[in-house]
Known about the structure:
The complex is a heterodimer. By secondary structure, chain A is an alpha+beta fold. Chain A has 4 helices and 3 strands. Chain A has a 3-stranded antiparallel β-sheet. The longest helix of chain A has 47 residues, at 28-74. Chain A starts with 7 loop residues before the first helix and ends in a 9-residue tail after the last strand. By secondary structure, chain B is an alpha+beta fold. Chain B has a 4-stranded antiparallel β-sheet with strand order 1-2-3-4. The chains are: A alpha+beta, B alpha+beta. Chain A binds chain B through residues 72, 113-114, 151-155, 157, and chain B through 52, 55-56, 59-60, 62, 64, 86, 90.
Amino acid sequence: MNSRHQSTGERNSPLLLFQKLLHDRKGSSYFDLMIKTLVVITLMVTVLSFLSIFTTYLNLNHICRRVVRVVELEGQVSDKAYGVFYRLKQQTGLSPEMTVEDVNYHDGQKIQLRDTFTITMTYSHPFTIFTPSFAPPVKIMIPMRVSITGMSEKYWKLSD
Amino acid sequence: MNKYKYVLQNRKGDVFIFIVILVFFILTLSAILIEYFRMESLYQQVEYVLQRGVNASVEYAMLDEYRRDGHARMDSALAEERLYEYLHESMKLDADLSKYIGEEWVYELEIKHINATDIPPRLTLEGALKTRSIFSFLTGDVRLPFRISSVNTRIEEGGS
């Protein structure tokens, strides 16, 4: 047989060594563990980065709820409501736009007792997919919208 | 008899039984948690809406002629009347104080006690929220008690 007469140099050639390494099952668990750990870490990082979207949505909801409560107690879209809105914007780092809808104003900006109104907040959350070192970060804008309906708790004595 | 003994002592397929029990346990636990948070959310929502109604009733029933003289006095009968009006018109409850969404029954308010006082102007609503859970076949209807109070307090000096 020809194989029996192979020289030492042929037996130790890089190709054969690589083939031998691939077929050798020694230490395979180690590589298995490494790949699994890498997959788990990648998954965890992905999940954690998606959490920021939910946090932003919860913050937006919180801002809207607080502003609605102030308008309910004040019975008007007053400076206090805008003050709370701007303070919460600073605290959360978001910059949503606020609109007041479905409302009947009386005597300016007054909302009569038990009249309903809806406050809508819209915001576009920039979600970074990845940040390459040689280019600006790749982002997608996720539009968010929160609408909460409130009811005035202030009785206004209006002139007829 | 021997057949049952044989089945009980046979360890073949025990992993399958174990997985079935585990899946059942996980599903039951998930159902309990989801149901708990659903009912908690419903309770919070109803409590919030009731508080708003009680506040609005007190606000509406305040007597202006006394307020001018620096006293805080409320028409308690009017406050109660406004509260029931709120329950039916704003909360859309029917004559039995039941809430339906479409054809589906959601909850019922069981009012035990309404206490309204002229001086101090206070309205207190006590009762329970009756609702159903997916475990109603075991526990029956669930009653969540509430006590909601609103008082109009003068913050300026006045009166004789």
